[in-house]
Amino acid sequence: MENEDRRLSISIGNKTKDIARLQSFCQEAGSNAKSLVVHASISDDQVEPFADALRANPSLTSITLDLPEISDSGFDHLSTLFNRSLRSLGIWANRLTSKGLEALAQNLLTCPRLERLDLYATQCDRHDLTFGDAGVDCLARALERQRKIMTYVGVRQNAISDVGVANLMTSLQRKTYVVETLNLQGNNITSVGVSHIARMLKESGDCLKELSLEGNSLIGDDGAILLADALSSPTARLESLNLKSCAISDAGAMRFAQVLSSSSSSLRELILDGNSSLGDKSVELIARALARNSTLTRLGLKSCRVGDEGTVQLARSLRENRCLEHLLLDNNEIGDAGAIELADALQRNRTLKYLSLTKTRIGGQGRAKLTRSLEFNSVMLEIALASEANASSTDLRAVEGLLAKNREIEKLRRELETCRRERDEALAQLAGK
User: Fold this and answer.
1) How many whole angstroms separate alpha carbon 28 and alpha carbon 24?
2) What span, in angstroms and rounded, lies between the C-alpha atoms of 257 and 228?
3) pLDDT reading at 2 higher than 60
4) pTM of the full predicted structure?
5) SS3 for 89?
6) What is the CA radius of gyration of the chain?
7) Strand residues in 343-413 grouped as ranges (E)
């Protein structure tokens, strides 16, 4: 059990004493907690006393329920407890079907302040225990009736197919409600489903800011190209795109490189981790685009078979790039040659703050060059190097000392920016008088 900043968390089993402990815990939380996280292996017939205890706490604004054994009937009891103060709801379950979700969606209408909803099927290999397309349709209809702004909607690992995506995108295009972040991780979406997402982005995508399609391995290059084309539309305002493990290769990478080269690109984050068909050729294309890009602050290329050739091109682009802050290159085939080029780039780059190079082939020579480069770099805040277990304690202390110096500089820089902002606001108020 934890209690920190009015956030409470408890994990229990399904024995009688566990149920009593959970009930007592929820009752004692009272007005002391605003956020509650429950991990419990309770069954449907054990839900009612738990629900009664939660109902007695009207101050909760955030609830996350990890209840893998609860089915539709159990959620019927739980869904009645959601209060008018609730802003964030997470349901992590394996046995919630479309029927149960329909009842849940109806009760969401009693939560006028709800702005975050995360529906996650933890047992993703059992599609008979997910709510699928029918559930998404129920959810979309409920959101349309609510007519509100949702900062986050997650429908993860629930066997959503292209049909479900098509219905959800049609619902979004009606603009009776807004979703700013949409997470469709780990479903059954193909390039056909992506075509509906792309159409929505082109025609009415000015509200969606973040999209995750991670783990939809049937998207491929066809889907990636459709998304990239949509991002070229003046109506698309997507800032974050997660395409981890989506079977993207050279053709998809080439189209995204063109998007990043465009002055109209709004992307600030692009995650391509786990696309093992990329390799150096694809990364070189993306790297060249980075030299001209002025918006991207985070690039993920973990487990993409990046070698020294791709890393050399990334290093060259970093010498010119003025916006990238996070570069993730873990679990790749980068050796000392690539690390040495990166080290040279870090001596000139003044924006990159986080560089991750774990699980690579970088040896002592590359590690030493990267460490020395920090002596000439005042902005790097965190660098994770390969084979740190084999590095000497002296080397590790040297890296940490240099990074600590940079963190202090960054702290002072932020304090100065705050002072300047407060001064400008004060001057503006005086001018108004």
Assistant:
1) 6
2) 9
3) no
4) 0.90
5) strand
6) 24
7) 354-356, 382-384
Mean pLDDT score, 246-265: 95
In the DSSP assignment, the letter for residue 332 is S
- Using a 10 angstrom Cβ sphere, with 0-12 exposed, 13-18 middle and 19 or more buried, the burial of residue 277 is middle
Q: How far apart (Å, rounded) are the C-alpha atoms in residues 328 and 324?
A: 11
According to DSSP, the β-strands at 2-4 and 62-66 are: unpaired
List pLDDT tens digits, range 221-252: 999 999 999 999 888 899 999 999 999 999 99
H or E, element range at 269? strand 269-271
Enumerate the H helices of 80-211 as residue ranges.
98-108, 132-146, 162-173, 191-204
Q: What is the residue type of 331? A: N
Q: Is 313 left (phi over 0), alpha (psi -120 to 50) or beta?
A: alpha
Distance between CA atoms of residues 217 and 204, nearest Å: 26
Q: Which amino acid is at 83?
A: N
Mean pLDDT of 76-103: 82
Share of the chain above pLDDT 90, in %: 55
pLDDT band at 280 (very low <50, low <70, confident <90, very high): very high
241: its two tokens: 């795109």
For residue 348, what are its two tokens? 């000139």
Quote the distance between the C-alpha of residue 96 and its chain's center: 24
Superfamily of domain 248-433: Ribonuclease Inhibitor (3.80.10.10)
CA angle 315, 274, 360 (to 5 degrees): 50
Question: According to the 3-state scheme, what is the secondary structure of 39-74?
Answer: EECCCHHHHHHHHHHHHCCCCCCEEEEECCCCEHHH
Backbone angles phi, psi at 387, to 5 degrees: 55, 45
The residues with which 419 forms a beta bridge, in sequence order, are: none
- Predicted pLDDT at 123: 64
Two tokens, residue 332: 């790749």
Helix, strand, coil percent content, the chain, rounded in steps of 5: 50, 15, 35
What is the rounded CA–CA span in Å between residue 119 and residue 131? Answer: 10
pLDDT in tens, 29-81: 555 667 888 888 888 888 877 777 677 677 788 888 888 888 888 888 787 76
